[in-house]
Design a protein that fits this description.
Elements (H helix, E strand, L loop, with lengths): L9 H16 L6 H8 L3 H7 L3 H25 L6 H12 L2 H12 L1 H4 L11 H17 L9 H16 L8 H20 L1
Helix pairs in contact: 1-2, 1-6, 4-8, 5-10, 8-9, 9-10
Length: 196
C-alpha cells in the first residue's frame, strides 16, 4: 500500500484479515506478516495501531468477547419463550461459529494470550459463554421452566464443554438434531425434576 493513503478503519480491517487467516490456515499461520499481507497493508500499519503483535492478538480476542455481550443480552431476553432445549441449541450454534472456534484454538495455541488477565476464569470465549448460559438458565429457573434447585453453573459448563467438542472439528459442523440431543441430555434432570 502506498505511503500516505488513508486506510478506513484499519483496526477492523486487520481483525477481519486475522480471522480469514485463522479460518484458512489455523493459529500456527497467524503472524503479523500474514495478517498485513491478507489485509493488503504495510506491516507498519499494524504497529501504528497496536503496541506489538501480542497486543493485536489480545485486542482480536477482546473484540470477540465484546460481540458476546449482545449475544448474552439476547439469550437472557429469550427466557420464557420457545423450549429451553431449542433455545440453547440455537445459542450454541450461534456461539460456536467458525471464527469463535478458531479464536479458542488461538488462545490455547499461544501462551501469551492464555496468561493475560481476562474477565472470567479460564479460556476466553469459553468462560464468557459459560457465564452467558448460566445467566440464561438462571432466568429460566426463576420462571419455573427448570428445577428450582438446578445448578445452572454446572449445567452451563456441561453445555459449553459438550458444544465445544462438537464444534471443534473445523471441517464439519455438528448435525443440529445430534446437538439438540446433547442439550436435551444435559438438561434432562433439571427439566424432569421441574415436572415432579
Amino acid at each position: 500500500m502506498p505511503t500516505g493513503v488513508h486506510i478506513r478503519d484499519a483496526r477492523q480491517q486487520l481483525f477481519d484479515a486475522a480471522e480469514r487467516v485463522l479460518l484458512r490456515d489455523g493459529a500456527s499461520a497467524l503472524t503479523s506478516r500474514a495478517v498485513t499481507a491478507e489485509a493488503g497493508v504495510a506491516k507498519g500499519v499494524l504497529h501504528r495501531h497496536f503496541a506489538d503483535f501480542d497486543a493485536f492478538l489480545a485486542e482480536l480476542v477482546q473484540d470477540r468477547l465484546n460481540r458476546m455481550t449482545d449475544q448474552s443480552a439476547a439469550l437472557r431476553a429469550s427466557a420464557g419463550t420457545g423450549t429451553v432445549t431449542d433455545t440453547l441449541t440455537t445459542a450454541l450454534t450461534e456461539l460456536f461459529d467458525p471464527v469463535a472456534v478458531a479464536i479458542v484454538g488461538l488462545v490455547i495455541f499461544r501462551d501469551e494470550l492464555r496468561a493475560r488477565p481476562w474477565r472470567g476464569q479460564g479460556i476466553p470465549v469459553l468462560a464468557e459463554a459459560a457465564a452467558m448460559f448460566a445467566g440464561y438458565l438462571a432466568e429460566e429457573r426463576a420462571l419455573g421452566r427448570i428445577a428450582a434447585d438446578a445448578d445452572v453453573d454446572s449445567l452451563a459448563l456441561s453445555l459449553i464443554g459438550s458444544g465445544h467438542l462438537l464444534f471443534a472439528d473445523r471441517a464439519n459442523r455438528p448435525d443440529p438434531v445430534a446437538l439438540g440431543q446433547v442439550v436435551e441430555t444435559v438438561l434432562a434432570d433439571a427439566v424432569q425434576r421441574r415436572l415432579l
